[in-house]
Structures are given as structure tokens and as C-alpha cells.
Hints:
CATH topology of the largest domain: 2-enoyl-CoA Hydratase, Chain A, domain 1
Order of helices and strands: HHHHEEEHHEHHEHEEHHHEHH
Amino acid sequence: MRTYLDFEKPVAELEAKLEELRALAASGEAVAIGDEVARLEAKASQALRDIYDNLTPWQKTQVARHPQRPHFSDYVNQLITDFTPLAGDRKFGEDEALLGGFGRFRGESVCVIGHEKGSTTEARIKHNFGMARPEGYRKAVRLMELADRFDVPVISLVDTAGAYPGIDAEARGQAEAIARSTEACLNLGVPNVAVIIGEGGSGGAIAIATANNVIMLEHAIYSVISPEGAASILWRDTTKAQEAATNMKITARDLEQFGVVDEVVPEPPGGAHRQPEATIAAVGDAVAAALQGLRDLPRDEIRTRRQQKFLAIGRNL
């Protein structure tokens, strides 16, 4: 069953009427409704395009958080063959919010790391809503070091509101783990490509997104803090999250202009959750092109380009 966002109400009403007409046609209780169905389909499609062509930053935030948006496991299932997940940081334990392993992407061996939010209530609880603890980032470091040792490119799929802020996570060194993971990204001698597939929140995102190429889906968001968090700090009022989102420049097009992301992948009308397979395929094409551009570079050149890319952010504004 499709979940509609508040601003999609006009589309929801049209599609509800469409479902009623289709049900009548299937039961044989209606005649000659083909023209009406076609008219409503065209009207719903146009309404959806009009809405999504003019989304505000806050509405994009809602789309990026849509529960039916494709998650890490969906990307792995469609893009990666022979995937072998690896667990544990060899220091404390396993973290289900940040998953990773090795497999083949279009015939090439790759290491894949990413946040998993989960698609059901049980899965969301299991994966802690994609908010990783220190052991998740230490696992990411372990996988990146393995990839570097065996000359395997790294693909990161980012979808988190941020690293888990719980007392237990802080006690085990959350900030240090994020810093070490960011450092591991910067020091890789193999190409790494990061894709912001939903939310890219704070250090929890940058810990695996410090990559040669950063790709972002059209309706994803990427920021140092959530709009609610910013509103709480600036105005001590979380109801001003919409105002915060507008001023924070968290959308893909804004970040592309600032040089924070290198490429924006368009989403189907209505967002990635309406056509997940097409979205995942488009992401696969973008990742393949990015890896191809880095494939023949020497290790030192790959490392230098990555470091210079991040040092250059904000210098030419």
C-alpha cells in the first residue's frame, strides 16, 4: 500500500478515484470507462510532475525520509552479485545500522558499505533506524582497510539521520570512531564513490562519504544537522524546522553548486519510492561512470585528488 505525504493529497485523491474505477472495470459492473481512466491517469501524472518540479527544501526532506524509499539492501540486491556480508568490528561487536561486505558490481570486485534503515517496524528497530554506533564505523574502517589491501574499489551508500547519540555510543567513543572512519576514507589508495540515497546526516554520513566522487539523488538531503536539530539550536523551537531547511541549503542542487557533491541523479516523477528499480539502475550507471574515470589512476593520485576535492569546498564561493 502506497504511503502519501501531506503535500501529495491532490494526487492521492486522483489515484483513489482511479483505483475505484479499475475495481469497477475488473468486476464487470462498469462499461466504457477506458476514456475516463486515461483522463484521470494523465491528470494524476501531471499533478505529480507539477508538485515534484516545485518541491520546497522541507518537502524534499520529507521525500528523503519516505518509508518506502529504496534502502541499502535494495541497492545491494539489484546491483551487487555474489555479495558476502562481513560482520563485527573485532573490538566490541556487530552493528546492524551500518552494513558492508564484498561482491561484484558489473563484473568488478567491490567493497560495499552503507546505512540500512529497514522497511518494516521490526527491521527499523533491528537496524536502529540507520543510526550507527561506534562499532559500525569501526567495522567500516576494517572493510575499507581490507579493500585497500586487495586493491578493491569502495562504494558507500549513505542514508542516515546521523550517528546514534545514545549514552552507550558516546561511552564507546562515537566521535573517535567517526573521525577514524573519515580518515580511512581519505587515506584509501583505491577509488571510492559515495551515494547519498536518502538522508545524509552530520558526521554519521561523512564518515563513509569522504569519497573521490559524491553522488546524490535528486530528492535526497545532505547536511551537518537535521532541520529539526538546527531549529532547536537556533530558535529553541523545533516547529521552525521548515524555515531551517529552507536556509540550510540541504538540497542536491544547492550542494552541487557549492561543490559538495559532484553529480545529481534525477529521480522518477513522484520520487524514488514510486519507481525504485529505475532509480537503483540510474544510480548504478552513475557509480559505474565514476569508477571508470578513476580506474587507471595511480594510488597516490587517487588519494591526492580526494584530499584536494574536500580542501577546495567553499574556497571559490
